[in-house]
Write the structure tokens for this entry.
Amino acid sequence: MAANETSRVQSIDVLRTLALLCVLSIHSLRAAIAQVNGQDLSGLTGNQIAASCAIGLSTLGVPLFLMISGYLLLDRDYTKERTLTFFKRNLLPLVVSYEIFDLALAIVQYIGAGGVTVADYVKSALFIGPAPMGHLWYMQAIVGAYLLVPLLALLLHAVRERGLEPYAYAVLACLFVCYSVLPSVNQIMALQGNAFQVVSALDMFGITGPRFLLYMVFGYMVRQGFGMRTAPVAVYAGMVAALAVLCVSAAWSNLHADGFQSSLAFTPVVLGGCMLFLAVVRALRGRRIPNALYRPVRSVAVCSYGMYVLHYPIVLFMKYAPLPVHGWALYACIMAVAFIISYAVVWLASRYPLAAKWLFLMK
């Protein structure tokens, strides 16, 4: 399905493509490492630092997707009618798509590896249990986030209308400390063998949901002009510094045999993702990418949701396929095959409007 070029935001399409490539990269890397030598990164390339940096940078996919959602969805006036329209056009197709793929992938998982029961499927279909294939957790989480989008947008609109931005920034800073900095300190201390835990009072009371929403709020802030008046050199330097910290963190984590099993709240991931998002939007503000370069980016961006859903079973198959390549070539082979097959399937399915709308959420 061809997208209307004039109605699309080029920086968002670039970020969608980057986010998808990060997701494909992290899953392909994990599959290649598992095929070569379990969780030992040095077995993949002989260079643990290089592999660590690749894994660290590849963790930015989901944060970028979340910030894109905030950028596009939170800067709206959600009246009763517009809220119902949002649920009809955005939430309902997402739920339908999830249920179809949840069933299809449960069947694939049952045939391929077993271990999936009817009870497991029913729980995942009702959003009270994990999905049969791990990557569908994101679809489950996004359904919950979409339910809160109209309320969050109204709150942000009220903050802006009443000039409460300084107070809102202070609250966001506190939430960042509670939900990112403190858990990251705990993770680092645990890797050093220190059992001491720093727990925020908010977590003690069981408030654990804002992590996803904080990424979405940052996307909204950028849409409202956050960082747009900052000198480009400062933004790009901040991005490079944040990504460097992320790479160092990943290398340090892997040296402590963690395999960089970090959460989305890990502070270097948060800072790296936010600075990359800001830098891309800042770089393309008021600029147009030449059509020859933009068209393939736009095509992948339009297909990104469907490719996200389809790539994972392909990667799992490639994980156990005997391939005549090793090292980075193995990783590149797995990623290329997953990219090409998932893109081809989504592109062909987009010829059928019902599949494009209800399966792959193409607009």
About this structure: Confidence is low (pLDDT under 50) at residues 1-6. The radius of gyration is 21 Å. The chain is about 75% helix and 0% strand. The first helix runs from residue 10 to 37.
